[in-house]
């Protein structure tokens, strides 16, 4: 475990590392001046690192970058997996694939994603976070994570903004095209999956101009068939007398994921002072999932190895889900002497469509199973008789059928005006502008519950699992037994009048419409004073919010309509000092604001006697004052060492809570909702290093090494009503999703023909979800994870390259535990994936 160092130790370590790096650079014959680096050709891994570092070096913000050829060097299926290689970045995975991005320990919903400068809305109903697995990495020219925002940027991220830039014809000289075919094999599913992708760009002459019009297009398609095996307790432990388990569930997922993406981009530069562009991007993510599960519930909570009576269920969930993202951005820039006018209009739409599907088909055991128990508290497995695996011992209890559609649109217009001027011989620029954003999110859920089949005239024999079984399910964690046929379930309920089974309460309480209108303006000034560069400014954001939905109070429906508006003034100050030719110091003070998630703001509620569950549309937005200080040193090609300290003072962070026993909920036994905390603090140290050892003799001159790590700590206070003491109590916690240590290590080698890379990504354990205010033992934590990947590229000819990639070589599982790492909440295995590809490139 990492032990917290004092600030003095951190600073000492930082400058010691820089001193060693500077010494190693002086030993290098490859040391180059700042301007000279633009004219030296580098290829492969070194090329990608070099391009990224140039952008990072010249940025006015603290920024981490990876370029398209860098993405191509890594075995990454999507944007989330590509960006995890950057300092301070970790990802949340779904079924073993990277999905949501966390920046400097802050959860994905506290960061924002932009494509070509315009905000991307979330396709999921409850979230703001964008699931970046919908974006194939082939459609991306560069990825950057901006960690300190200047006043001309949207202020809607606490950790950072992930900016995705798609391909432009002006990224290459003349005609460029590339195409890749690939096949991957998943060890657990024993399935082979195809993938094809390609991109093309060229410049043309319009009017009197020469090569002033560019067109770029990219396409990508892949289909991946895989599976995972899971066992979970969902925290159903009784810790009052040792560790005793109430219930657990075994799950087998069979999944097919299909990604289709495309982009068509235009650039026009009629003269040296004018540029226009149109960026379009479309991505479609189709996920088909079949989940068979078995559930065991003990009559009394049991310790490991104890035997007793248990009830059993077998379940099926089968659904198809399609997420789409569309993004269209039109903009341009015009220089008029000392003035520069720029503007942009953007339209983005995200959607998630889940057509009618089996949300749950449940078969209950016809009787209890005696002498049942479990073994292994980390991966519980049943101790049970042979009758548990006989389909004749289970009968259909109910079928839940659902359909859901979510749409989220973002429309915005931005206008900026800048003027260069001189202050006593120092170059300066004043810049001001505004932005109008209109966001609209809808969720529509319809639910049906089919039950009481015996009252409909079905015999016990007709409802027996044996009539719906599809044979024995393979399960790597032990014996599983019969699976359930989705088509047989659909045939059964297809003959019934579904209007008789409509669940109006579930359907209406989850429907909502939300509107979020933001009007923003800013002014900022940049001045260069000798070796200093200063940026000071102020941003204003005014927000109008409305949420419409339906509540259910003891069976009676009530319309809910909440309207609010709030305003934020957000000052910022950035400074950069050129300490030496290749060394610079950065400092920043910024202020940002993030709105709560749509699930937290949901206007719907369900009140049933003394039990309530509801969202909170009156939640305050999260506000953060951010302080950053760091130093960067650049060492020739692909070489850098850097260290950054960061501190965030966060107000109004949101947490889940039980309000029963307090205020208007004084007479309730449960009242689950969301509340604002007073304050939270996050601080840490971010270190990064990369270098190509090209001054060493062959073959060592092909070695490339990279490493980065982030150490962070957080503290937040939450409060809630404690039924045992009858008082409101406070509790200190870590921020959810915040890992104290995140790191990457890369070792590569390349020459003109061969390029190989071994990379590892580490993320320490973190708090996933709070339990009761006075129930720390049931808090959910995600265990530490280390993913090891390997990639190799070999050039058969100048334009033709063969590749081999291996992901998750160590078969790293996903493990969530309750309070202590000995006690399962969820355990899931995915297996490694191997792929072989062929790429043809011309430029």
Automatic annotation (TrEMBL):
Domain TonB-dependent receptor plug spans what residues? 57-161
Cellular compartments annotated = Cell outer membrane
Q: Which key words are in the record? A: Cell outer membrane, Membrane, Receptor, Signal, TonB box, Transmembrane, Transmembrane beta strand, Transport
Q: What is its main location?
A: membrane
**Topology term for the membrane:** Multi-pass membrane protein
Q: Which InterPro entries match?
A: Beta-barrel_TonB, Beta-barrel_TonB_sf, Plug_dom, Plug_dom_sf, TonB-dep_rcpt-like, TonB_rcpt_bac
**Where is the TonB-dependent receptor-like beta-barrel domain positioned along the sequence?**
375-809
Tell me where the signal peptide lies.
Answer: 1-29
Against CDD domains, the record matches this protein to: ligand_gated_channel
What's an example GO cellular component term for this entry?
Answer: cell outer membrane
* Family, as annotated: Belongs to the TonB-dependent receptor family.
- The identity of this protein, by name, is TonB-dependent receptor
